[in-house]
Amino acid sequence: MAFNLAIFKTRALSAIIFAAIMIGGLVYNQWTFLVLFAVINFGCWWEFHRLMEKIEPTYKDLPNLLRYTMMLIGFAYMLYMSNPFMYPIGKWNLHDLGGYFLIAMASLLLVGIVLFYKKITFNNILSLVAGFLYISLSWGLMIKLRGRVNPYEQVDAGWLIPVILIASIWVNDTMAYIMGSIFGKRPLSSISPKKTWEGTISGVILAVLVVSYGGHALFQLPFRLLILVSFLSSVMGTLGDLFESKLKRMAGVKDSGSMMPGHGGFLDRFDSLLIATPYVWLFVDMFLS
């Protein structure tokens, strides 16, 4: 394929802007982190609805009330998973407010199902539940990871695990692409023919090495933690990429959306993170409590 300078400039500029927004939202404080992933949550849901309309014909008849309510349920769950020491309104913390909001939205969803039961199918309901498990569950657990900080400590280091997780996926994706382009011969899966075993294995190994040594040098974090989190993130992130590729193939589309010029949509950008996050959270919750 011939090199196109205009396309390269567009992709490079959008990638720089995207990286700046991500880094700022990730590390500034818990509020910017929440806002960042709230936007990502709604963006992913919007694209998920569009994909499901192409995969399941009856999904087009699903009332907007149920679609938007499910998106708000996901957002309410994210608020519920927030640090209990975040107080936006007087004595009301965000965790409690999220719980009340979650109950209200769940009640509205049930009312909507009763009102529109003639317009929806059981598959529609399963799709909404699957969307929550795929999208909002992951972002809620990401918020939970960010909230792992002692409120009595002066230094807020709750962003470290999310940053390690995201950095592992970014390094893995980049190295897998480069090494696969150079040495790749055996396709990893028919779902994504451009991925190779050589690129995938190289990406995981290099991600573990770069993140482990980089994290230890920059933040003095233990090697064992860095190795396990980076390995888990890379492997599950690759599966997340394949899963979203399968969804797009079922829908017959190349990209899930057009959020980033030259890079695709929200699901295209965060597919790896959606699958990797629950596994990293489970590891952290079990072994770092």
Helical segment count: 9
Q: What integer is the average pLDDT? A: 88
Shape: globular
Report the order of strands and helices.
Answer: HHHHHHEEHHH
| Domain module tally | 1
Q: Low-confidence segments, ≥5 residues, pLDDT <50? A: 150-155
Distance linking N and C termini: 50 Å
Can you list the strand order of the major beta sheet?
Answer: 1-2
Structural class: mainly alpha
Estimated share of beta-strand residues: under 5%
Total number of strands: 2
Q: Return Rg in Å.
A: 20 Å
Proportion of residues in helical segments: over 70%
Largest pleated sheet: 2 strands, antiparallel
Summarize the structure.
The protein is mostly helical and 289 residues long. The chain contains nine helices and two strands; from the N terminus they run ααααααββααα.
